[in-house]
Write a structure and sequence with these properties.
The protein is an all-beta fold. The protein contains no helices and seven strands.
Length: 111
Amino acid sequence: FRANDDRYSSKLIAINPPIQARFLRVNPQSYHSWIALRVEFYGCKADPCDVPLGVEDGRVTKQGMTASSMVNTYYGPWSGRLQARNHGRTRGGWVAQRNDRKQWLQVDLGT
């Protein structure tokens, strides 16, 4: 899918047909300067399927967000929450240490 092309906007992308998953891994295929992103996933147990799954509001814990790498601890996978802002030891997005297609961000949605 094609994501947003600037650092300020959000883009809603529907996965169709729907999938069942406990883990979701985002594997960026292109980037400008650095691989970086913020995410939220929406899902459901039944229709309608438009309920935030807890990445943005913190129900998915810091430990539930992992990544292939991070440029430093300020830009770790836990910083990849949608609407994340700079505060304390968190910055507004996950940033990979290396710029290659092997980088990924994974979210554990629980059971």
